[in-house]
């Protein structure tokens, strides 16, 4: 890239201007955004599966309606994000193919199973909680279409988080068996939720360039710390125990000290060896294959209408 153009581009970013799809941008900026927005979109789409697992078994009609609406919101988030990525010159079909063939990633959290109803509480509380912690700063990200998508997505995510916490409240104040289920869900989702923020800063290959371009607004460790600080009092309020014997308030730093997740497990999940990784990709491939007749039908219909117009 031309150094003068690069400097002018960086000056726009530094001045807090939004970059729009038709503006000049360095190839690296475009590629990084396609990677990050694409992975984010895939996460929303694959993220429907762990909760979709419980729609048919929700304990009441009201809980079922709420969960159904939440999962539909996630599909909607995926669609806005694919649209934002398309403005960068990649098609939704190309992105989908990269997900289905395992070439593109989706968030590690969705490779974990949802074993009980309490997991619906833990996913809403912790997974949406972590998602918001990461996405609120992204409302100020430098790429216009991404930042605008984040504004609406964050509104919906905060509602999702509250519905998850509400399930946890109900379970944690219920029978001893319900409380045990809530604790078990927290035990299984705590460390995978911490992993959502990405590897520790020293292993985060993209952070420094992405932060200079304001594609990312904070480092992975900064956001992880904020999440722990926010979530520990919420666990205490529920009367549940965070599964970390080393978790301790540190008066000097004004933050909690906590144990790092098992990074070997994280990198295993990233390489496609998570507990449900194969199942998730199979489900997405099946949905894509089962929908082929709809796509073919729509194309044939569009073709017929076009032919009629030109006749
Ligand atoms: N999972 O250099 P960094 C949701 C990869 S929220 C998988 O630090 P970066 C809502 C990373 O891609 C979840 N891969 O990377 C919901 C890179 O590999 P690559 C989605 C991960 O990009 C809630 C490598 O590790 N949110 O879905 C993960 O600067 C409930 C090196 O890492 C977003 O995507 C991970 N956890 O920072 C839905 C937010 N972490 O690509 C349903 C936007 C790292 O070179 C139910 N994304 N990797 O092959 C971001 O903010 C960033 O991409 C990070 C990672 C912070 C995730």
Q: How is this structure best summarized?
A:
The protein has helices at residues 3-14, 27-46, 48-52, 61-86, 92-100, 118-138, 144-172, 176-195, 207-212, 220-238, 263-273, 277-290, 292-310; strands at residues 248-250, 255-257.
Describe the structure.
- This protein is mostly helical and 311 residues long.
- Helices cover 68% and strands 2% of the residues.
- The protein is built from 13 helices and 2 strands, in the order H-H-H-H-H-H-H-H-H-H-E-E-H-H-H.
- The chain has helices at residues 3-14, 27-46, 48-52, 61-86, 92-100, 118-138, 144-172, 176-195, 207-212, 220-238, 263-273, 277-290, 292-310, and strands at residues 248-250, 255-257.
- One of its GO terms (cellular component) is cytosol.
- It is an enzyme of class 1 (oxidoreductase).
- Its EC number is 1.14.13.149.
Uncertain residue segments: none
Query: What's the pLDDT, averaged over the residues?
Result: 97
Estimate the strand proportion: under 5%
Distance between the termini: 47 Å
Helix content: 55-70%
Which strands sit side by side, in order, in the main sheet? 1-2
* Strand-pairing-aware structural class: mainly alpha
Largest sheet: 2 strands, antiparallel
* SSE arrangement, N to C: HHHHHHHHHHEEHHH
What is the number of beta strands?
2
Bound molecules: Phenylacetyl coenzyme A
Principal-axes shape call: globular
Number of helices: 13
Question: Features of this protein?
Answer:
single chain, 311 residues, mainly alpha, two-stranded antiparallel ribbon, binds Phenylacetyl coenzyme A
Helix-strand layout with pairing:
Layout: H1 3-14, H2 27-46, H3 48-52, H4 61-86, H5 92-100, H6 118-138, H7 144-172, H8 176-195, H9 207-212, H10 220-238, E1 248-250, E2 255-257, H11 263-273, H12 277-290, H13 292-310
Antiparallel strand pairs: 1-2
Helix pairs in contact: 2-4, 4-7, 6-7, 6-8, 6-10, 7-8
Bound molecules: Phenylacetyl coenzyme A.
């Amino acid at each position: 890239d031309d150094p003068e153009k690069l400097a002018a581009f960086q000056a726009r970013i530094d001045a807090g201007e939004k970059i729009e799809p038709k503006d000049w941008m360095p190839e690296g900026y475009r590629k990084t955004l396609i990677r990050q927005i694409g992975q984010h979109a895939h996460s929303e789409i694959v993220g429907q599966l762990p909760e979709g697992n419980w729609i048919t078994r929700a304990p009441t009609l009201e809980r079922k309606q709420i969960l159904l609406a939440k999962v539909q919101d996630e599909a909607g988030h995926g669609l806005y994000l694919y649209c934002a990525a398309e403005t960068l010159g990649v098609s939704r079909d190309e992105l989908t193919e990269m997900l289905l063939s395992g070439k593109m990633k989706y968030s590690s959290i969705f490779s974990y199973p949802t074993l009980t109803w309490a997991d619906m509480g833990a996913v809403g509380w912790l997974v949406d909680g972590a998602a918001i912690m990461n996405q609120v700063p992204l409302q100020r990200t430098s790429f216009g279409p991404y930042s605008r998508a984040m504004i609406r997505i964050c509104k919906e995510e905060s509602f999702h988080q509250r519905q998850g916490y509400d399930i946890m409240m109900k379970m944690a104040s219920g029978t001893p068996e319900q409380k045990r289920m809530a604790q078990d869900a927290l035990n299984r989702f705590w460390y995978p939720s911490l992993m959502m923020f990405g590897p520790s800063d020293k292993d985060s290959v993209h952070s420094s360039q992405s932060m200079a371009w304001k594609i990312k607004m904070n480092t992975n460790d900064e956001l992880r710390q904020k999440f722990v600080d926010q979530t520990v009092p919420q666990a205490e309020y529920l009367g549940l125990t965070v599964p970390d014997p080393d978790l301790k308030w540190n008066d000097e730093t004004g933050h909690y000290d906590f144990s790092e997740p098992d990074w070997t497990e994280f990198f295993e999940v990233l390489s496609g060896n998570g507990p449900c990784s194969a199942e998730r990709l199979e489900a997405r491939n099946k949905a894509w294959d089962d929908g082929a007749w709809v796509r073919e039908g729509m194309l044939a219909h569009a073709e017929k209408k076009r032919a009629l117009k030109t006749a």
